[in-house]
Amino acid sequence: MTAYILKRLAFVGPLLVVISFLAFVLLRLAPGGPFDKERVPASPEIEKALRARYHLDEPLGQQYLRYVGLWWEKTEPRGWRRVNGGLIVGDFGPSLKYRDHTVNDIIAQALPVSLSLGALAFCLALGLGIPLGFHTAVRKGHWDEYAGSLLALLVICIPALVVGPILVMVLALKWQWFPVALWGGPWHAVLPTLTLGLYFAGRIARLMREGMLGVLPSEFITAARAKGLSETTILLRHAFRLAVLPVVSYSGPLLADLLTGSFVVESLFQIPGIGVFLVNSALSRDYPMVVGLVVLYAVLLLVLNLIVDVAYGLLDPRVEYE
Amino acid sequence: MLVACRGPNPAADLVIINGAEPETLDPALMTGQADLRIGLAIFEGLTRFNPTNAAPTPGLAERWEVSPDGLTYTFHLRSNAVWSTGEPITADDVVYSWRRVLYPPTASEYAGLLFYVRNGEAFNTGALQNPTQVGVTALDVRTVRVELQNPTPFFLDLCGTPTLAVVPRQTIERHGDRWLCARPVPASGAYCLEAWRVNDRIRLRKNPRYWDAANTRSEIVDLLPCINANTALNLYTSGAADVVWDKNLVPGELLDVLLRRPDFHSYPVLGTYFLRFNVTRAPFHDPRVRAAFALAVDKRRIVDKITRGGEQIASAYTPPGVPGYEAPVGLSLDPGRARDLLAQAGFPGGRRFPACDYLCDTTSRLHEQIAIELQAMWERELGVRVTLRKMEWKTFLVAQRDLAYDLCRSSWIGDYNDPNTFLDMFMSHNGNNRTGWKCEPYDRLLREANAQLDPAHRLARLREAETLLVREEVPIMPLYFYAGLEYYDADRIHGIFANVRAEHPLRAIWKSPPAGRTLAQP
Amino acid sequence: MNDARTSRTAGAKEAGGPAASGADNAIPLSPSRRAWRAFARQRAAVASAVFLAFVVALIGLWPIARHPAISSYLPEAITWSPTALSEAQFTPPSPAHWLGTDVHGRDLLSRLVSGTGISFLVGIVGAGMSLLIGVLWGALAGYLGGRWDSVLMRIVDILYALPSIVFVMVLMAVAEAPLKAHLTRALSSAAGEWASLLLLFIGLGSVSWLTMARIVRGQVWSLRARGFVDASRALGAGHVWILRRHLLPNLAGVVIVYLALTLPSVMLYESFLSYLGLGIQPPQASLGYLIADGAGNINAIRTYWWLVVFPGGMLAVLLLALNFLGDGLRDAWDPRSIGQ
After folding, report:
1. Could you give the ipTM of this predicted complex?
2. What residues form DSSP beta bridges with B73?
3. Residue B509 counted as domain residue
4. Within the 13-52 window of chain B, which residues sit less than 8 Å (CB to CB) from chain A?
């Protein structure tokens, strides 16, 4: 097991290099640059100076190495000096759109907000989804199973685009239980969490149900019943372990997505998180910001996938690692 | 019941939803209107704008003299002009700020505003290396002399813009690119930047050392970014925001209801929504075809059904409201004449008309809606089928720049209160032309106009040029003039006035307590 | 062990109906026939299948109602074109417009029908691509194991980390003009107008196969761990035979369930793209576009409820039907577990 974990961790470095390079190149394929505006500057020299200031006129490979921090410049009178910053010291570079801030500044301000909202939504999704899925599987064939399944399906079918404004209209404007938008105290977190988490609660409920339905007919469950164990023990101790596996494998990417923020929820509730930034910086061609966010997301994803795979192995004793 | 958002303590006196998150608060670099509003609050220039009519009034300069030929201005700075950190604001600061804008590595996108100063363009393009030859000099600690290339009647307007505002030299030299993250940032304007959380809020606190601090009405002002129109409306309705002043943050479908409310304000501003024709591509190289397209559009329907903000339809390109200028009459709705012109050009009834496309971008649903209406109008009146191409913003800009379109939607907001800001962009080699239209008579008329001292003669020349633009050659088709759309309760919010530049200096705005409470002394 | 479970649980299900048990004991049915019987017994699934068939037929037949020869015999409300503008802006549902109109006076019912058609296409292509590429990739990775598994799954990890919105944006911006020129030359100018839609399909499809690959690989991995693959190899079975007879049938259940989850997620992603302004070109509409448009209308002052309720309701009903259908198919074809 430890060997497996170490092997996977060893991959993280090279993977990040590949991911950062691909992200670096991919956005540059899109037409337009970060400084294209409706109003063209009065002389082409201004544009040239702007691009030169951010090294956008250099060859692509050189720009990438400079971004990583593995580029050396000549200094007066003799000798070479490594450029400031770079990815290897954790400096994601200046933001080309928000020119007074670096990408690190923005991530430092916005990530904690997205992390809290994402964690809350994740807890809601698991806290609602797992019991609902469990219940609908155990009570298969009864009316409350149909109701529960229908509820889970309905929640999956209605996008956050629609759920959010409806919640705001009813709970915040009409009944005035919660604030309409912004991020401040705990009351501000309720509506965004609901908007974000309900959809995933539905999906997790579906996965949990499938998992339970798959495990319940198993031989070892029948054997446990034959042995006379109580139904509760069987369900909770034996069946649940295996049934939760699809939920576990779904949770890895889910948590990574939630922690890096949701564009729809954050723009609807004007929450200063990181989710709006990925979309907006792609649309504004803010190259360092996009690459920085992609690297951040990739790190989260790789780590969470590793945790998921390890949990898989712990929960299902039949699985072995190579 | 908890409704209002509990922001950082203490609560602000005024909460304004400003529009998009500012890209930068560096006055030399800012271009967006949201940025410009905040920039003017923190940094001031030689003149500042009057809140009622946006006319330039003395700012850091208490008085000035203009030479008879209109080429030399001598500004005298106030003796009580100091930075918020205590140091006096000197003429050297002014000269440094202007040179910084022109300095090529700063890469200021609005450096063009200083091209009216002698040698400004040469220094910015690198033709001139020595900054001391640029026509701005500090004669002594409190006197600045400016030499212009041509008499520029709107030069005092320019002095009030953030690009020409005075910035703190020591802070910039010490912190470089991140000088706005340093705390404190010395402010030359009415407010200091107290806190800036990206995408959350910008908090401004009254600058007690501002020369006119006695008249700064609000102590703490919070500016919130917002990108969703319904969210802005909800924040305003629930009382979390006092003012919303970005016309993109008004839900279009509700405008007919909103216009009837007393707290919703709509007034004409200096901006035009227009279409560009690509005159380098057949068949739009023929002015008859362009005129036919322009004559077939029912602008009234678009303004009544789609934009619905009380905008005026545009027949000329320069919006009304420029003092002393009467714009010419352009092309109005005349489908019969449109069809005749199209037939004359060789496409009777729209037959054999080549495939053409109309570009619009995705920054607002409005552009798409207007595009759909235009497409239907051209099909119905001219029999021509135009394909719509909706493109994402940067891709759209590239297509526009590379002239890879037949028709595209455009808009222009005036930088200063003069027709020149609208007309000089269509000169043959101006980068903002982007239609491929090159007309020597037009260029000549504009050059002549800008060399004129007499305002009446100058405006007459400009009118001739605009007639060429919107009536005869028609490389563009103006659609409507923008209206500023703002929410605020005029009974409680004071100091916001409707003017064509939509300039609302923060220093003049204050909020009175709700009726029934005693009025605190301002 | 798996095969033993198969017969027992299949038998348990069959014994549910009294009439059926007699018939089953008398004539042994093939597994496929048994599966169809089981499917037919799932009422919800059958109803969903019928409903979906009805919707597809409606979408196909709708343009015929506008044909001048028969449109005069039909009620006006079903003969509107989805792109015809009118003066009747924002009218609520009425006899002339059964579902109301939008900002341009266009009839919502016809836009909904044509939009559903496009969304179906989007969903099917996306799900199809995820099926084709994802299942093959994941099965290969799980089956080959070792270094190949590592490489293939790391490629999936890399592609997963890249932001799909950038990819879609780049694809549409870069490939649109050449594809359009190519189609116009090869077929006709009308075909050229489909270029952007085609690119949307390709873009959406290419970002939706990744999860499927990962799920399938996990399944194959745990199936391999159960030893019957090695047992088959020991008995001399070829790779393709094992894939066909053992792995793919066992995968059918998981794949069907995930397909049923992929279709809605592709449709919702298309709705998100429409919300950002990327995606469908006007004046065409997709269900996602109608929903994004309608959702922007929800406010406390005056909501044009028909612009939200009908597209949203249509999407909800469609996805419910697809899910029930998926459930039914899975229950019928793979009455064994989809467990790990």
Report:
1. 0.88
2. B66, B146
3. no
4. 21, 23-26, 29, 31
